[in-house]
Amino acid sequence: MFKRGVLLLLTLAGCLGLLLAAGCSQEPETIKIGFNVELTGDIPKVGESAKFTAEMIREEINAQGGLEVGGKKYPLEFIYLDNESKPESAVNATLKLVEQDGVMAMIGPNSSKCAVPAGGVCNERQTPMISPWSTNVDTTKGRPWVFRAAFLDSFQAPVAANFAAKQFNAKTTAVLFDISNDFSKAMADTFKQVWEAKMGPGTVLAFESHGAKEQDFSAQLTKIIAAKPDFFFLPDLYNHVALVVKQARHLGYAGPFMGPDSWASAELMALCGKDCVGQFFSTHYAAAGAQGATKDFIDRYKAKYGYVPDDVAALNWDATHIMLQAIQNVGKIDPDLSAQRKAVRDALANIKQFDGITGKMRFDAEGDPIKCAVVVRIAEDGQFIFTESVCPE
Amino acid sequence: MEYFFQNVLNALQWGSFYALIALGYTLVYGVLSLINFAHGDIFMVGAYVAYFAATMFLGEVGLGPGVTLALIVPLTMLATACVGVALERIAYRPLRRKGAHRLYVVITALMCGLILENGNLALLGASRKSFPELVPTTVYAFAGLSVTNLKLAVIATAVAAFAVLHFIVTKTKIGLAMRGIAWDSFAIPLMGVPPDRIIVFTFILGSGMAGLAGVMFAMAYPVLEPYMGALIGWKAFIAAVIGGIGDIRGAFLGGFLLAFLEIGVAAVFPSTMRDLIAFSVLLVFMWQRPTGVFGVARNQKI
């Protein structure tokens, strides 16, 4: 009995060894890329945009036999994991992609509250990551393995402040933000700083917050409306925007709103309707009136999925293409995964300029792109109309 | 002064939702001593049923918004009553038959809530639904205050629902039977009262109230998501406890009390501290009066 047990164990160990050896020596047949996306939770439309875009890219490249790296074609294998738009789930999804699925690199998460912790994991486990949509400074700061495709809040806040000052002839403002969301809080803080530096201290008349699951904002809004600001800055996610704008109107606020890129979801108008018409927000690209490669992308996306892609889709397109470009630049697929990851990271850091559909971008030493922002106006028919483009000096 | 009265109006609207949901909690607790934690999710089901019924009536059937509203209110209440009764049949009654401890029934209720939430997520997806505007919102402005017709309707509905429930429980025969079961569930069958039938009736009433709250909520805050019932359900439960769970007046009062506290705190202090201060105050209140405003301490019968 005892002997048989030992024999069995030995056989098992032998099998395992063989498997491991086979796993190590064999060259991978596909290029595995992980997608850490918000398919459920607060912002499901963001996850949907990201996944749809990635599927478009995968189908297109695999139809040609795969991505050509060093003269050989490798089919793409994309693995999508839902991070429920929660920080802890984003970390779990990252660990699974990096450790279990053995992906070469990761795209996502999109929202800052997930991208900041997930970026920490990727940096620690030495896996290259690009966040398409995260604008929070901390996502890439001091993390050589983490990159992004979106501009930063520190750039976006002055864009919004300058535009609002000019457009509404505003001297004062009020801010309402989601305290439980990294993006919303950081954006509100940065905006407050920028505005007070520009207009003088005390010109942010009200600075109010709410929680992630709250649906009634009447107390905060009453406070804000009583302060009589010239305009209302709302760095909140699109699902909250729809509620806040409606409730503010019902409480008698008649002035303009201004928002950051978190407004720019294809779902905003479905939820907000006519209440959001005529408002402005800063974002990464404007679908209406786009030309060239951007128009081409919009047309194909629309034909395939039936609606105009939002900025998340466009940024995911760019982020994925930057990653594929880096893999191609490496020039070979190393059977050793960690060596390959290192090579991809170096290739990413070496991309100094990229011509994306959200515009031309240069990358700085931190892995952040230097690119232009646009301000759009929400038109009667729900389209986001290009109003102004602001580029960094 | 305007600022104060505006916030009173805000609190009245928000409190109406707490009160409507707390009424359902308190009814079931009063009769069964069961905390029906699935109640917040029955409220969510109500909002979704109202959404689907409203879009169907408006779109495919082509009815006017007014008729649609008149139809979806009873329809939603009926649907949520069915959900409540189904939960009672599937989850709670078998446990009661087996004489399971109350703790297990509460855990079962929690599970039922999770099943409703995640069932919705799996069936309908995570994407938000936008509730159509049935009644054109008119903003009335007087003396510096803003109030919408919707806000007034919500408050009136809550008061009416309370009045109806209070009448049923205190003035009718079936209400007498409900109070009887609450008093002594072992002796009451001996008087010829069928306990199961009364319990089903209680679930119909309580879940119907949740359905009504769901319709009103969807109209006032027209962004629906699968987890919308969770937090408001928890808070309404707290409201019911503050009022003295098991007492209808308590649920109604507790709902408004909680809303006044929350809105009051946000109006005076920075809104970041809203829940922290509001619930600390409630905690202090519970120290002084653990049975709530109207509750009576009940000693274990030997």
Automatic annotation (TrEMBL), chain A:
User: What are the UniProt keywords, alphabetically?
Assistant: Receptor, Signal
What's the family? Belongs to the leucine-binding protein family.
Q: Where is the Leucine-binding protein domain?
A: 30-383
- One Pfam family, please name it: Peripla_BP_6
The signal peptide, as residue positions, is 1-21
Q: What protein is this chain from?
A: Extracellular ligand-binding receptor
Lineage at the top is:
Bacteria, Pseudomonadati, Thermodesulfobacteriota, Desulfarculia, Desulfarculales
Per the UniProt record, which residue ranges are transmembrane? none
Q: Which organism is it from?
A: Desulfarculus baarsii (strain ATCC 33931 / DSM 2075 / LMG 7858 / VKM B-1802 / 2st14)
Domain of life according to the entry: Bacteria
Automatic annotation (TrEMBL), chain B:
Subcellular compartments: Cell membrane
**Membrane-crossing residue ranges in chain numbering:** 12-35, 42-63, 69-91, 103-127, 139-169, 198-221, 227-245, 252-270, 276-297
Q: Could you cite one Gene Ontology molecular function of this protein?
A: L-valine transmembrane transporter activity
**Domain of life here?**
Bacteria
Asked whether the keyword Ribonucleoprotein is assigned, the reply is no
InterPro entries, per the entry: ABC_transp_permease (IPR001851), BCAA_transport_permease (IPR052157)
Chief site of localization: membrane
What Gene Ontology cellular component terms go with this record?
plasma membrane
GO BP annotations listed:
D-alanine transmembrane transport; L-alanine transport; L-isoleucine import across plasma membrane
State the annotated membrane topology for this chain: Multi-pass membrane protein
Record bears the keyword Transmembrane helix: yes
| Alphabetically ordered keywords of this record | Amino-acid transport, Cell inner membrane, Cell membrane, Membrane, Transmembrane, Transmembrane helix, Transport
Q: Which family does it belong to?
A: Belongs to the binding-protein-dependent transport system permease family. LivHM subfamily.
Entry-linked PANTHER family: BRANCHED-CHAIN AMINO ACID TRANSPORT SYSTEM PERMEASE PROTEIN LIVH (PTHR11795), HIGH-AFFINITY BRANCHED-CHAIN AMINO ACID TRANSPORT SYSTEM PERMEASE PROTEIN LIVH (PTHR11795:SF371)
Q: What protein name is recorded for this chain?
A: Inner-membrane translocator
The lineage is:
Bacteria, Pseudomonadati, Thermodesulfobacteriota, Desulfarculia, Desulfarculales
